[in-house]
Every structure is written in C-alpha cells, then in structure tokens.
Amino acid sequence: MFEDDIWDFTDVVGLPVQLALCSRRFDFIEITDERWRLVGKELVLAMLAPRHPTVAPLPRAHRTALHLRSCAGRLEELIRFCRWLSAGEVSSLAQIDTRICDAYMAHRRYVLDEYGEVVGENSPGTRRRAAQVVVDLVNYRELFTADRVPADLRPWGGATASAIAEMPCGRTENKTQPVDDAVMQPMLAAALFLMSSLGPHAVELGRQIRETDKLSTRKAPGLRAVHVAPVTEFTELLNEYRDTCTPLPMLADHHVADRLASGWSADDPLLAVATGVLARQAGITQFEARWMHHLRGPLENAVASVGVKEVFARDAAEITMADTSSVLPWTEPLHRLQAVALVGIVRTAAMIVLAAASGMRASELMELRIGCRRPLEEPAPGLTRYRLASKVVKGQPLGGIDDEWVVIEPVYRAVELAEDLHDDRQEGALLFGRFAFSVRYKWFRNWTNSPAGRRLSLAPIPDGQVNLRRLRRRLALEMAYRPGGVLASKLHLKHIAVATTEGYASRPGGAQAELLAEVNKHESDRNLTLVLTEFRNYQQGILPAPGASPSSSPASTKSSTRQPHQHPRPSAVTATSSTC
Q1: How far apart, in whole angstroms, are the C-alpha atoms of residue 288 and residue 299?
Q2: Of residues 520 and 314, which shows the higher confidence score?
Q3: I need a labelling partner for 361 at 20 to 30 A (CA). Which of 7, 92, 352, 509 fits?
Q4: Is 436 exposed, middle or buried (0-12, 13-18, 19+ CB in 10 A)?
C-alpha cells in the first residue's frame, strides 16, 4: 500500500533474475522527515506509474515506467540528499536554491580524506545520480503535497543530469572497449581446456561431493549420540580401512591450525585425522575429545598402516596437458572446500565460453534454465543447428519475452556441462541464477595463474578488465572484421560468423537487433576504409594487379600486387568515384 513505509516487491511475478534482492525492497523509513518521506513515495510512484492521472499531465515527467532497479537507485540518492540537507540544517525543500544545488554537487563530486582534504573525484555516474535527484525534485514539483522546491528554481540552467555530470558521450564511439587480444586468447584457451578435459571429471567430482555431504552431515539419518567411547564401532571401521588399504580422511589446513591453537602438538600423528568424519562413518553424531585416550591406540595404528590423505580425487584419471607434452592426473587430491572450488572454476569456464561466443547479456544468461537447450536440427546433411532458449529483459515489459539464440557447438556444450554440474537438475531450475561475473572471472584468473593452472601447462592470463559487456563488444568486432582474430583461431570464427549472425538476424527488430546493428556499422566502416584507401592509391597512380582480391589487405597489396599507373578505363574511374 502507498501508506506503507516499506514497499516489498520481492514476490512480484516476472521480475528478472538479475534484479538483486536489495533492489526489490524500498525502505522509506531511512528518510526521517515525514514530509520528505511522503515526497519520496510520491516521486517513486510517479516513476513506476507514469500514466497515473495525477502524473500524466506533468510536462517534464517520464512517459515510460522506470525499471525497479532505476527507481531503487533514485530512492537511494534521495535518501542521501535528505540526510545531507538535514546535516546542513535545511528544514524545507523550499529553502533549496542554486547555491545549495552546487554545494551538493561538489559534495558528491569530490572524495575527501579523514582530514577533509580532496583526494580524488567520484565517477561521472555518481555525479549524474547526484544531479538527477535535484532535477527530479524540479520536474515533479507540482506532484508533491507535503513539501516542494521553489517554483523558480532552475538549477544549472536547466541542463540534463548527464551534461551536469560531464558524462562522456558515446555517440562517436562505443564507450565499452573490447577485451584485449593478450587477455582474450589465454582466457578462452583455458576455458575451453577446462571444459573439454576437466569438465567430465568435475561432473563426477560434484556428484561425489553431494554424496559425501549426505553421509558426513550431523543430521544424516541413522546417526546416534553415545555417551561412552565407541571403541567397538571405531575398531570395526578402522579394520575396514586397513583391509581396503584406504587412507584415513584428512582435515583441511584451517582445522589443523585450530587444533594447533588449542594445544595439539605439531608432532601428534593424529593431528590431521578427521575424527569427526570417522565418527559419522561409524554411525555416531560427533567425536568427543574425552574419547581420545580410549581411541588413540587404534587410530595411531591405522595411521601407521594406511596413512592420511585428502578425501576427494584420490585416484584421479589422467589427461593430456594443455601443451600436449605429457599426461598427468587431472587434479591432485583435494579437501572438500578445494573440490567445491574446482567445480566452481569449471562452471565459470563454461560461463566464459557461453558469454564470449554467444553475445548474450548478463540478464539473458541469468534467465537460462535447465532444459534451455533446444533439440538439434539438421536442415541439410552435415549442417547442425544449435539453439538456446532464454528471455530478453532489457527494454521489455515486466516478465520479459521468450527468445532463442542460434549458437555454435562449443556454446551448446558449455550449457550441457553447466547442467551436468548443477546441484539440482530439475527441469526449469535456473542454470546459473544471479551471479557476479567480475568476481567469478577473478577467481578463474587466479586459479589459472596459480600452481594448479601451471601444473596443467595453462598460459597465464595477464591483467586486464574483462566483463560481459566487453566480451559482447569483442564478439561484435570479430564478426564485423571477418575471420582472422584470436577468437577465430580458438573457436573457428567462420562458424560463429555464420551461425551466430543468423541468430541475430532471425528476428528482425528482435532481441539481437541492437548487436546486429553494431556489427553492420563496423563492417560498413571497414569497407569504407578499404574503398577510401583504394581511391587514395588511384590518386597516386597505383592500381591493383589483375586478379587481386578487393578485400586484400591494403598494406600487403601495395607491397606485392601494385603496378605503376596506366590511364584507367573511364568505367573504372566512374565506379571508384561513385563508391567513395
């Protein structure tokens, strides 16, 4: 209800998976002044419902509903502005003038240290949000009933928030830069290697983790609590370990450190033994320290006989190293947390391949669900179509619209691997859910550059910013400039250019129209550059040799296939001039 001080949209049907939980809950209580709290509610409602009969007549109001995330950001900045006004002893919005507006912009523009000295500037995005809150209070002034800014207030001469914040313009060039070649090549090579070589083993490792967790938890069925030392149960269990020559389970390093801190000796042979795991294997809820003097003898004998080792990947299958120089086990023995982390790294590798070779936005990746792979199609012998189903959220009504992407086989296999790695493979469950790609990529890069990655001969990934927008931009450029880049050498870009472009163009004006337009723009720019170069060569009296390809590189053609100028045929001159 409008009167509520907390608007909770968490259970609204159709909200995108990408929308964080904190952006689904509007907390107006943080605005302490009740008049300004009502202003905040009226402002947010006007942005959510621009066709409301009270909002529609406003001359400068938004004509389309803002996204919940945008409204949450506006409310957050309004709360910050109200706090700043209160700290400056401003008790009414009617007191706001251009001087106060400029002061708030300065407050949000500069970063101060603990002594109040300027040490830097905030980003243009932060400055734009600061300017936007003032602009909103002016644009919606007539709507507010409890308090409002003066009628003659026109801060910054009526300029837009982007202009006030000196926001860089992206009209001449896309502000999102592509991923550098030096980063793209080793990153994609490592992701493909992990998918193909480690993927099947990671699936089995994930299954073992789930099965072990079911048996190792204290709430596992069949466990019982005992009050005396279970010597008989432990003796039978340890005899089974000796009979099968199976090492006892090992504690993780942080648990060993806890034991050392509690007084255990570093020379104790039982220091690394996971006694709690052994207790649950023996059918007992937990191991109590007072039992140790009764069980130390059998435990030490078992350690001397079979040793202690990490629980997971003890007998890892062998694979070929990334440089194909030799074979080795696909991983060393792992503790549980290490095993969980490795499964997560392989899942991130599948995510990287999926994002880099499909061009899907973050919101579209998060909408993928178990079963999103469409049945394979073979419109012609030897030609297989791979399709993925997801939702388009950006620019669409609440709930998004269903859409499909035509992808190449590595993308299709990446989704298949992600499904196999999923903890709950129920049809319709979210494949990835909401994730922070920058964080996952950082973990992936750190693992690739760690001793574990060097052990598999993976090339280190250099420093460089990688995010989903940069990957999407890189794909657009590779598609525009024909096969021949790093991505082409790793993923057969010729196939990407054919299949993926078909997916972008299959629904004119649909989900991928924006990316297709960018591809066409880069292709047109390149063609115009080639034609202009040929025209400049013609002006200098240099013509292509007979049989030279029009798309040949100008530099190589000039050095190897150029001939001295001879008077051209009129038709050739006319065609060249017309094209330019």
Answers
A1: 14
A2: 314
A3: 7
A4: exposed
